[in-house]
Amino acid sequence: MIARYTRPEMGRIWGDENKFRMWLEVEAAASDAFAEAGVVPAAAAKAIREKGAAFEVQRIHQIEAEVKHDVIAFTQAVAEKVGPHSRWLHYGLTSNDVVDTAQALQLRAASKIIFQDLLELSEALKRRAFEFKHTPQIGRTHGIHAEPITFGLKLTNWYAEVERDIARFDRAAEEMRVGKLSGAVGNYSHMDPEMEAGILVRLQLRPAPISTQVIQRDRHAYYVATLAVIACTLDKIATEVRHLQRTEVREAEEYFSEKQKGSSAMPHKRNPVTCEQISGLARVVRANAQAAFENVALWHERDISHSSVERVILPDSTILVDYMLAKTTDLVERLKVYPERMLQNLEGTGGLVFSGQLLLDLAEAGMLREDAYRLVQKNAMRAWNEGLNFRELVSKDPEIKGRVSRETLERAFDLKRQLRNVEKIFARVFADQDSPESAGVAHGTQKRSAKKKR
After folding, report:
1. Active-site residue, 263 included
2. What distance in Å separates the CA atoms of residue 96 and residue 219, rounded to the nearest whole number?
3. Per the residue annotation, which of 61, 69, 263, 435 is the catalytic one?
4. Which of 413, 407, 375 is nearest to 391 (CA)?
5. The model's pTM
6. What is the DSSP secondary structure assignment for residue 368, as one 8-state letter?
7. CATH number of residue 227's parent domain
8. In total, how many domains does the chain have?
9. Do 325 and 388 fall within a single domain?
10. Running along the chain, 454 residues long, what does each successive block of 10 average in pLDDT?
11. Does 305 qualify as catalytic in the annotation?
12. Which of 9, 91, 96, 340 has the most CB atoms around it within 10 Å of its CB?
């Protein structure tokens, strides 16, 4: 199921083949830089990059089964292909110089995919927000009818949150665009910081200003936490659609195909299974954020308690968020919306949802707010308890009739009056869509217009 909605390259990024290719890329960049500095023979650097590329993943695993060390297994397998020049392989480096820097390359590639996913969701929300800009809907607080909104405003709210997700994710991805080649404890005992910077330039990474044997894991915690916040946004959208799809509400529902079945026992069922899946997977990503927080505190200059965790949470979180974003975009694009039902629900309480406006109009007419509140609430509670029409009740209430004109009373129940600022809200939200904050930092070269979905 996940494979159908995940870009094929996302899985490839975290596969062993690509992981070891990234390790070799770091090793080769280091050899090239050392060769340029006259430390390593140029022929050796060339052999490491070209002959080393013939390594076999199966051979690395075979060696690791014996030596119980993945980097040693990798360098030994590469050395077998490089030949005599392999004495310069891994020169001046320690294991995590390679692993952490290569991991930054993997995360950069994964981040580009997720960034594009976010753009696609943003565009889908924007398009549907304008489609339903003026579609009246009842706004609910505590699950109870409150005051009128439009469905377009709801979608715009989601859009604005996704834009913030984009800005947050850009910052988090940029914080992860760092490498380190500072040695076993971070003191550059076998390489100068200037050499490190030169190697990382070749990889289009920045050097961590200071590190131990590892890049400090607050960066990774921030990155995974940002993925968790994105998952929360998707959960929020899915949860709202689930509520709107309830039989008693039925104002919107996720797409249900002609041959799809909702229940093995009840043929009538049209369940929000996509939304429920999104909500469920969001829990996994949020749980992974907790694991990332636990990785920040390591013993002294390094232990490996974080390593096993990251082998799970980094691939899983990026793959899941890619999948969830694709599913949510598909949900939004194909969402079935029922404007007539929205209007029917809005009008279903006989005007109760305009009580706030009537309260203000009575106060404006000179009534003390406390007295106006008592008067309006008395009629509202009677409408609730007896199933009467609130608008008709207040139109016949002598205290209200004595305070406001018939025209003022009718205007209190004017839906257009309630929704008169929709255009201004849209203008404010979408006017900022091309701001520097929305454009981002790490992926600022990418266009804001999303490409057609896969």
Report:
1. yes
2. 16
3. 263
4. 413
5. 0.91
6. -
7. 1.20.200.10
8. 3
9. no
10. 64 96 98 96 97 97 96 97 97 96 98 97 97 97 96 98 98 97 94 96 97 95 98 98 96 80 65 94 98 96 92 96 97 96 96 95 93 94 94 93 91 95 96 52 46 43
11. no
12. 96
